[in-house]
Design a protein that fits this description.
The protein is α/β, with parallel strands linked by helices. The chain contains eleven helices and 25 strands.
Length: about 450
């Protein structure tokens, strides 16, 4: 393990430090007890037990599958496409009709020796299989090699200055690519310590930070950051925040930096490539590629190469390169809409919606496809205190009238998955229910 150091701490769990030596010995012990199975679906919620299970599986040469969510239908569909699957979990699951192993922390006898120089980790091409979220379509598997992930982690460590003294607290699940990289793989590569919990509410996040010695890094999402800003809590020192999974507005980034007395960074990436770029949100819209990432900008899109990628990886997003090597993110290719002969970006329209005073959050989408010039856009909005007429008037100040959404559905909160994304299918269901109610 690249970040191994004798006497170092790899995790903070239930108020105590877990030493690297303990972790490696427990990996060996768990690996010896895992049944033979070509593929393991890791559903562990405890971040330390997830790390332990992941390394134990690789120690045995098994492939680990990371589903985008814990829904029974999702897990069964993945198992059907990958024969021989077995589930691993640290909490009870409903009967999925699959072989299952309950994971708990192994007991290691004091003084048990750690095999020095042993081939701890398999480097098979499909050692880790990460699935896209499916928020814009069908979830797709992406094969990851351990050595590539360590090189990607090294690039991120260099960008953010993460080292063996750093404590990592994350609100995102380890099965998601963002959570996997920042709260599992980077600690293993750097010697940093991961907090084993997955805090959700602001008070839980504050408590997890307080349990982790400084310097601390908070790995989270815009949804969690907005909740933290609104809380009346006193926050322990946070060296910096890394946000991903959804666009972070400059206004919210400024509020976080002020309220939590910290610095806020965003990472840009995708499941196919992992994290590849970053920016400090308060400093403007431009992103900077990680060292070693080379973009190939062509008429049909952008592809990336790097020493941690298995080959050229096409991006779904459109970018605008700057002369100094930085770039502006323009949104997905599928993000462009054509209404009455005029084109716009749904991401840009959504940012304009969310900039309206009184709008807490909202999304503009094209229910009927992006190239139907007769279609109207729609919006799902959280805006207590604003009525439809006022909202439309404020939208007219910010965008061409052809892009004013109709219908506008007001809700108490946007539907979000485990990492704070708003899946398109869930938004369409809200629009369908609103349409049925009004007919």
């Amino acid at each position: 393990m690249p970040g191994y150091r004798a006497g170092g701490t790899i995790a903070w769990r239930q108020g105590r430090a877990v030493a690297h030596e303990t972790f490696l010995a427990q990996v060996e012990q768990l690996a010896a007890t895992l049944p033979d199975a070509p593929r393991l679906i890791n559903l562990c919620q405890d971040r330390y037990l997830f790390m332990l299970s992941l390394c134990a599986a690789l120690r045995r040469g098994h492939s680990t599958l990371l589903p985008p969510n814990r829904l029974a239908a999702t897990i069964r569909a993945i198992a059907a496409d990958h024969p021989g699957c077995m589930t691993l979990a640290d909490e009870p699951l409903e009967d999925l009709g699959l072989p299952h192993v309950a994971i708990s922390e192994p007991l290691v006898a004091p003084g048990r020796p750690v095999p020095a120089g042993s081939p701890l980790i398999s480097d098979r091409p499909d050692g880790i299989v990460a699935f896209t979220s499916g928020s814009t379509g069908t979830s797709q598997p992406n094969l990851k090699r351990w050595s590539d992930q360590m090189r990607c982690s090294a690039a991120a460590m260099a960008r953010f200055g993460i080292g063996e003294a750093t404590g990592m607290v994350a609100t995102v699940p380890p099965q998601h690519m963002f959570g996997l990289e920042l709260s599992v793989l980077i600690p293993m590569a750097s010697g940093a310590a991961a907090h084993a919990g997955r805090p959700f509410f602001p008070d839980d996040i504050r408590a997890a930070l307080a349990e982790t010695p400084p310097p601390r890094v908070l790995v989270t999402t815009p949804v969690h950051l907005a909740a933290c800003v609104k809380s009346d809590l006193d926050w322990p020192a946070i060296d910096f925040v890394i946000s991903a999974t959804a666009p972070l507005s400059e206004a919210l980034a400024h509020a976080v930096e002020t309220r939590l007395s910290t610095r806020v960074f965003e990472i840009y990436g995708c499941t196919e490539a992992g994290s590849v770029a970053s920016r400090r949100t308060c400093e403007g819209p431009l992103w900077r590629w990680y060292d070693g990432v080379v973009p190939q900008v062509r008429e049909d899109g952008v592809a990336l190469t790097a020493d941690f990628l298995p080959g050229e990886i096409p991006l779904n997003d459109r970018i605008e390169p700057e002369p100094d090597g930085r770039f502006r993110l323009l949104g997905r290719g599928s993000d462009l809409v054509n209404v009455a002969g005029k084109r716009a970006s749904l991401m840009d329209l959504t940012l304009k919606l969310n900039a309206i005073p009184g709008v807490r959050e909202g999304v503009i989408l094209a229910p009927d496809g992006r190239d139907d010039t007769s279609a109207r856009l729609a919006a799902v909005v959280v805006a207590p205190g604003l009525d439809r007429a006022t909202l439309i008037a404020r939208l007219r100040e910010r965008m061409d009238p052809v892009f004013i959404p109709r219908p506008i559905v007001f809700v108490d909160a946007l539907p979000r998955n485990d990492v704070g994304k708003t899946p398109r299918q869930w938004l369409l269901q809200l629009l369908d229910r609103a349409r049925e109610t009004n007919t």
